[in-house]
């Protein structure tokens, strides 16, 4: 009789690779959250976690869990400041390191949302001269942050070199139109919106025709002298 022996397959060294990447997450403040990925590597990879490029170390709220090829960062009690970009980096002696990233948003939940409200409205009307710059500002409060759109006479406006629209983190809204022409007068509408609702503010803009600006010659009012009028 022949005896059949089975030799163990040799283990091949493998550089780290992600077979399941991190996913973006959103969670209500104070709730726990887990960020999980799957990494295949031999020798086993060394894994580090970071938030906004700063390494995360285990503490009362942050825990690292390894289950086979699955690696998890658990935040047991989230805070608003936990929002940011999270990354996991894996490396071993075979090859370089690999990294994947995901965003975490921690908010107050639907009950904490605030519909947009203009605390400072656009002026009800503005009159400028042709070729002057058109500028107006407003202030909006909302949670979460709002998106801003502009319309003139119902037509959506887009940013250009002459037309600048800004919104900062404090809710300050600004609009500038350089060298406005008469065809750009009309009703300007600023719309602020988020998941809860939207609000509008309106301004009627009148562009007056530019005056001629030519000076009348002072000599035009001096009467002409005729030879017959001379003594």
TrEMBL record:
CDD domains listed in its UniProt record:
Ig (cd00096)
Keyword set, alphabetical order: Cytoplasm, Immunoglobulin domain
SUPFAM superfamilies for this protein:
Immunoglobulin
Stretches with biased composition (Polar residues): 214-231
Where does this protein chiefly localize?
cytoplasm
Protein's UniProt keywords contain Translocase: no
Chain ranges of the Ig-like domain: 16-99, 116-206
Pfam family name, one = I-set
- Subcellular localization: Cytoplasm
The protein's superkingdom reads Eukaryota
Could you provide one GO biological process annotation from this protein's UniProt record?
positive regulation of locomotion
- Span list, region Disordered: 207-231
Asked if the keyword Cytoplasm belongs to this entry, the reply reads yes
Q: What PROSITE patterns has UniProt attached to this entry?
A: IG_LIKE
Query: Do you know which PANTHER family this protein is assigned to?
Result: IMMUNOGLOBULIN, MYOPALLADIN ISOFORM X1
Q: What is this protein called?
A: Obscurin-like
Species this chain originates from: Diaphorina citri (Asian citrus psyllid)
């Amino acid at each position: 009789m022949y005896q059949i022996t089975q030799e163990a397959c040799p283990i091949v060294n493998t550089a780290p690779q992600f077979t399941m990447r991190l996913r973006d997450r959103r969670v209500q403040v104070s709730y726990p959250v887990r960020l999980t990925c799957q990494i295949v590597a031999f020798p086993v990879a060394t894994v580090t976690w970071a938030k906004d490029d700063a390494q995360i170390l285990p503490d009362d709220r942050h825990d690292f869990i390894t289950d086979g090829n699955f690696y998890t960062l658990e935040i047991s009690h989230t805070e608003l400041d936990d929002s940011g970009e999270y990354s996991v980096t894996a490396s071993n002696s075979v090859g370089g390191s690999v990294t994947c990233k995901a965003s975490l948003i921690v908010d107050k939940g639907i009950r904490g949302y605030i519909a947009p409200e203009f605390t400072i409205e656009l002026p009800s009307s503005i009159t400028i001269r042709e070729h002057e710059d058109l500028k107006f500002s407003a202030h909006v409060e909302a949670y979460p942050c709002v998106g801003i759109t502009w319309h003139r006479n119902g037509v959506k406006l887009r940013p250009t070199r002459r037309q600048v629209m800004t919104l900062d983190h404090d809710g300050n809204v600004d609009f500038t139109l350089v060298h406005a022409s008469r065809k750009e007068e009309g009703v300007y509408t600023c719309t602020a919106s988020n998941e809860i609702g939207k609000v509008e503010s309106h301004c009627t803009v009148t562009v007056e025709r530019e005056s001629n600006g030519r000076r009348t010659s002072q000599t035009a009012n001096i009467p002409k002298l005729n030879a017959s009028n001379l003594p």
